[in-house]
Amino acid sequence: MTDDRPQQRTYTGSIDPEKFQKMIAVRAYYKAEKRDFATGHEVDDWLAAERELNKQYFYWFQEEW
């Protein structure tokens, strides 16, 4: 049986994985700041930041895929 859901890729080919994690953390921090650091959205902020950076890096480095 095949899974028809789109696969999420994490691109870290041209950037150090530790640096990439820090970039996600910074972006997630600014998302939390926009909400005045209301609790209960930490994971959502992290996942949204990760998706945004993955998308950004996919377009920057798509010829490397």
SSE diagram, text form:
Blueprint: H1 17-34, H2 42-60
As a percent range, the share of strand residues is under 5%
Oligomer: single chain
**Proportion of helical residues:** 55-70%
* Biggest beta sheet summary: none
* Helix segment tally: 2
Helix and strand content put the structural class at mainly alpha
Radius of gyration: 14 Å
Number of strands: 0
How far apart, in Å, are the first and last alpha carbons? 26 Å
Low-pLDDT sequence parts: none
Number of domains: 1
Mean pLDDT: 81
Shape label:
elongated
Q: What order do the helices and strands follow?
A: HH
Characterise this structure:
- With 65 residues, the chain is mostly helical.
- It has one domain.
- It has two helices and no strands.
- Helix 1 packs across helix 2.
- It starts with 16 loop residues before the first helix and ends in a 5-residue tail after the last helix.
- 9% of the residues are buried.
- The model has no long low-confidence stretch (mean pLDDT 81).
